[in-house]
Design a protein that fits this description.
With 302 residues, the protein is an alpha/beta fold. 39% of the residues lie in helices and 21% in strands. The protein is built from ten helices and ten strands. Strand 5, helix 3 and strand 6 form a beta-alpha-beta unit.
Length: 302
């Protein structure tokens, strides 16, 4: 038999925006457990490569959609906060739960990077999320993660300690000025002497909209959401991740969940893997199998 997943466009509404994505499901009769992909930073999009096909082959439906203002979706993701993204994620869950090919009691979230903050936050606000998988999701707050990223990513790319300190200065200045009421356009213009610096593009805020977005989420702390989480959680990290403090994140997540009495969580670190869970050009060996097996146990046996 030729395996060919069925892909159909699915749209839903949130906060006046129409979000458009692809629902990919197995070619066999449903209903199936399903996942919503919660993307990381930036504009994002529904093209997640081979992942939807891999999940369909394992018996899962999945939904990946364009962020507001990206692809076919209306709106503007730079005007969101992480709480907005969490509510949008729950709107996607509701859309999936209403689909006849999806089991309403078995919809999970897979959040990557920034989505690793958003997915637990969404799950902590609703009992409709059956499980959460966080891939490279920071266990620390936004500002701490950005500071860590600049201190590790820039030297790895050949930049000097002076470059790192200047980048950190700009980061803190952006957040401080916007929080105090300054226009992000003015903040961006004031940093014009650094716009041509080779390291400038590594900042999270390089345009007025992205500076505004960064300042708006900079005080997010994942602790509250993790303490309130009741559904199963799988947190996955790459040991060579330069963007996220892996050891601290794993320790913080484990400590918070243990102290909260959360009895179904697993934290896995893949040796040699980067932020995208790749070793070289390939996915970390065992990563796909881990996610599929873990989801199968939590969703198929509900």
């Amino acid at each position: 038999m030729l395996f060919e997943p069925v892909s159909t466009e699915l749209s839903f509404e949130h906060d006046g925006d129409e979000l458009v994505g692809d629902l990919v499901r197995p070619p066999t009769p449903g209903p199936y457990p399903a996942v919503v992909f919660v993307e990381g930073s930036g504009p994002g999009g529904r093209d997640l490569g081979e992942w939807p096909t891999r999940l369909a082959a394992a018996g899962f439906a999945s939904l990946a959609y364009d962020k507001p203002g990206s692809g076919a979706s209306t709106g503007d993701w730079t005007r969101q906060r992480l709480t907005d993204r969490a509510e949008e994620t729950l709107a996607a869950v509701r859309a999936l739960r209403q689909h006849p090919d999806v089991r309403a009691d078995a919809v999970a979230l897979i959040g990557h990077s920034q989505g690793g903050w958003v997915a637990p936050l969404a799950a902590s606000r609703s009992d409709t999320v059956a499980a959460v998988v966080c891939v490279s999701g920071p266990g620390v707050g936004v500002l701490a993660q950005e500071e860590y990223r600049l201190r590790h990513q820039l030297p790895a790319e050949g930049f000097t300690e002076a470059d790192v300190e200047q980048a950190l200065t700009l980061l803190h200045e952006q957040i401080r000025r916007v929080r105090s009421g300054d226009d992000p356009v003015r903040v961006h213009a004031a940093q014009a002497p650094w716009h041509t610096a080779p390291w400038y593009t590594t900042l999270a805020g390089t345009t007025p909209p992205s500076i505004a977005f960064l300042a708006g989420i900079a005080d997010h702390d994942p602790t509250t959401a993790l303490r309130s989480l009741t559904c199963p959680l799988l947190a996955i990290y790459g040991a060579e991740d330069l963007l996220v403090p892996v050891r601290e994140s794993a320790r913080v997540v484990a400590t918070i969940l243990r102290e909260a009495g959360h009895d179904d969580h697993e934290i896995v670190v893949f040796p040699g893997a980067d932020h995208n869970l790749r070793v070289g050009t390939a996915r970390a060996p065992g990563f796909d199998e881990l996610v599929v097996t873990w989801l199968h146990r939590r969703l198929y046996h509900r």
